[in-house]
From TrEMBL:
Domain of life assignment: Eukaryota
Protein name listed in UniProt: Dynein regulatory complex subunit 7
Annotated signal sequence range: none
CEP76/DRC7 peptidase-like domain boundaries: 278-351
Domain Dynein regulatory complex subunit 7 MORN: from-to ranges: 405-688
Species, as recorded: Dryoscopus gambensis
Length: 703
């Protein structure tokens, strides 16, 4: 049903609205159509549908069977009653001509098909394929129905069509996949009809909805008072804010004016045809395929929409491959209040009775001359003939390369999305989104790229254009067990953060950060409860560096090693180390133990180097001068000198092992950088063994 036009800010009387100048309206319509046609992208300018070759099409495209002729007669009879009883309603889209100029009922143009691709078993995959494979063409007149509806096979062949062509193809795929889907004839906003998404946020950038925190059900829980604040200080602060210099106040007013101007520019312009623009989309009812809630699909974008979305302004009719329904509900509030219970004859008038029940469409009584209306039983039971459309077929090559122009570009609000077919780029790039700081898309802020079929298992890359920080993400299975790698340069010691699939590592390392002066490692699930290791590194010997000696022979000196441990419940707290510090250059070892629940001060042990004594290799010297202990909660055995001696000897051995582990970590990081540099210099794409065509091309390229 036609939705009401947008109301003017200035109040108008009904007489003024009825006396609108028709010529002005047509001038606006003509200008609007010109703007729309200029704004719609097209790879083949001025494509002429009348010049397509129809000689090879089957006979079902060129003629009607006896059953189809009966169907058209019944449809005409229904339309006669409809136009007589509802003269103010807009025409219904019932039997347009096809590509051969033959009238076909819209339900028979649907060809339910399940294509042999796993992604097309789900509505999201079907919607993505249709919106990517076809090129959008606007309606010749935005407020009138198209005069023709071509078959889905012809639309697939030429990869282009209007909103009705998109919807019929998408609905055919959805019904074939088992969904309760319907094509919808209705009205929508200018942005939806013209595929203008410059005012929308890119779906890839939308943040997930925040889950509200659950309130404590215990109403008797003690509520602690907030931190007290001085009222006098708050008053003084408010006075300072009010005492703003005149220059600052002018600057603030100017900034506010600029913000208002930007907001006005970003607002969509008022549409004089609001509520009149014809559009077609797809309705999916709940129930089948475990769909929990009824929703709309915009075929141009493939996006999911609620039935209360304000972009949909009204519905005239819907149809599937079995029947046709006319909406009898009021659409003054758009589609918000519509009921989609098709069995309700008050809300939806069905064209052909599905249970041999007479149609309840009201008609005038021929025996009475009064204006009263009464319901007359008309036998409209009819079995819908099979679709006249040939079988819908999509080859693997066509499915893998859906973009007729090589790529697809979509402009969003302060963002640009680019899509490519698989194997179109040598580096496996299939999708890129660029985020801008301004609406004119001149200053780049962030770039995200997605990849497919890479042998190095790289699938996503994020680039921060302001800090030049690059983050690569990898799928499981990389030879180095990489999960993510953040860097500004692949040169060593320039700041690298590497994340691993830690469940595949023996040491439980899940993250490592390295720079020129430090290295931090994070662990998960270790038996010794180690969770963090921090290493401070000094500068290399400048003389050796100037002499041209490599970094392997001139390593960075280890200044300090810190290790942090989780609580081990099997040990007493005064025997369970929480922090362990090895000051390698200063020769100091410091231990800090965990606290018990009732403790306030942690136990500590510090071993220092004896001043004035020559250090000997592997010598362990312990005295009261070089050991400091504070263990108030420990037993007497922990204060024994022999116990401290054995502890110091173990720590010295641990320090030697830690030095070797640090060197191994440095060598591992260097190896990662070398491997990543080689992978980026020689990018290889994997080809499935079932993709014979691609493997043949790859073999020919190698030969």
């Amino acid at each position: 049903m036609e939705a009401l036009e947008e109301t003017e800010e200035v109040e108008q009387t009904p007489e003024d609205e009825n006396s609108l100048n028709i010529s002005d309206f047509l001038d606006d319509l003509e200008a609007d159509v010109t703007v729309e046609e200029a704004s719609v992208p097209s790879d083949v300018p001025g494509f002429d549908w009348s010049s397509i070759d129809t000689s090879h099409l089957p006979s079902s495209y060129k003629t009607n069977s006896r059953q189809e002729k009966e169907l058209l007669q019944l449809a005409d009879h229904f339309l006669e009653q409809y136009t007589h009883l509802c003269p103010d309603r807009k025409p219904l889209f019932v039997h347009p001509v096809n590509e051969c100029g033959v009238q076909k009922f819209v339900s028979t143009t649907l060809r339910p098909t399940l294509l042999p691709f796993p992604e097309l078993y789900y509505w999201s995959g079907c919607a993505s394929f249709v919106c990517d494979y076809l090129i959008m063409e606007p309606l010749k007149c935005p407020i009138t129905l198209p005069s023709s509806l071509y078959s889905p096979t012809t639309i697939l062949k030429y990869q282009r069509g209007n909103c009705f062509d998109f919807s019929v193809l998408l609905c055919s795929l959805l019904i074939g996949a088992g969904y309760d889907a319907y094509c919808v004839q209705g009205y929508a906003t200018l942005e939806m009809c013209s595929l203008d998404q410059t005012q929308e946020v890119c779906p890839l950038l939308r943040k997930p909805p925040e889950v509200p925190e659950e309130e404590d059900p215990n109403k008797y829980r003690i509520k602690y008072p907030l931190e007290p604040q001085s009222k006098f200080e708050l008053q003084q602060k408010a006075k300072k804010e009010e005492e703003i210099e005149p220059g600052q106040e002018e600057e603030r007013e100017e900034e506010e004016r600029e913000e208002e101007v930007v907001t006005e520019v970003e607002k969509p312009r008022r549409d004089p045809l609001h509520g009149l623009r014809v559009h077609a989309w797809v309705l999916v009812l709940s129930g089948k395929r475990k769909v929990p809630e009824t929703f709309f699909i915009n075929p141009f974008t493939g996006n999911h929409h609620s039935t209360t979305d304000e972009c949909f302004l009204g519905i005239e009719s819907i149809w599937n491959h079995r029947n046709y329904w006319v909406n009898m509900q009021d659409c003054q509030q758009g589609c918000k209040d519509l009921s989609f219970d098709l069995s309700d004859s008050i809300c939806w008038e069905i064209m052909f009775s599905e249970s041999n029940e007479p149609s309840q469409l009201p008609t005038e009584s021929p025996k009475k001359d009064t204006d009263d209306m009464e319901k007359v039983e008309i036998d409209m039971s009819f079995e819908m003939p099979l679709s006249w459309v040939a079988r819908i077929q999509v080859s693997y090559r066509e499915y893998e390369n859906p973009f007729s122009q090589g790529k697809k570009v979509i402009l969003y609000n302060k963002a640009k999305l680019e899509k490519w077919a698989a194997y179109a780029n040598g580096d496996g790039l299939v999708e890129r989104i660029t985020v801008y700081a301004d609406s004119d898309c001149t200053e780049e802020v962030e770039v995200k790229e997605w990849f497919k079929h890479r042998e190095d298992l790289l699938y996503m890359r994020e680039v921060n254009k302001q800090t030049q920080l690059i983050t690569d993400y990898f799928r499981p299975g990389h030879p180095l067990l990489l999960k993510a790698h953040s860097y500004t340069s692949l040169e060593p010691e320039t700041g690298h953060t590497v994340e691993y699939y830690h469940t595949a590592r023996a040491d439980g390392l899940w993250k490592c950060f390295e720079s020129a002066t430090e290295m931090t490692e994070y662990f998960v699930g270790r038996e010794d409860f180690l969770h963090t290791r921090h290493i401070e590194l000094g500068e290399r010997d400048k003389k050796m560096h100037m002499a041209g000696i490599g970094s392997d022979a001139n390593p960075r000196p280890i200044v300090q090693i810190k290790e942090y441990f989780h609580r081990n419940p099997e040990k007493p707290a005064d025997e369970d180390i929480e922090e362990r510090i090895f000051m390698v250059i200063d020769g100091i070892i410091q231990l800090t133990y965990h606290l018990e629940v009732h403790d306030t001060i942690a136990s500590k042990v510090v071993f220092c180097r004896v001043t004035g004594r020559e250090k000997r290799e592997d010598e362990i010297f312990l005295s009261r001068e070089n050991s400091v202990t504070y263990q108030p909660w420990s037993s007497e055995k922990h204060k024994n000198v022999l116990h401290l001696y054995n502890l110091l000897r173990e720590l010295r051995e641990e320090q030697k092992l830690l030095k070797l582990q640090v060197r191994d970590s440095e060598a591992e990081m260097l190896n990662i950088l070398k491997v990543r540099e080689d992978e980026e210099a020689n990018i290889k794409l994997s080809v499935s063994m079932y993709n014979t065509a691609k493997r043949r091309q790859q073999h020919e390229a190698m030969v």
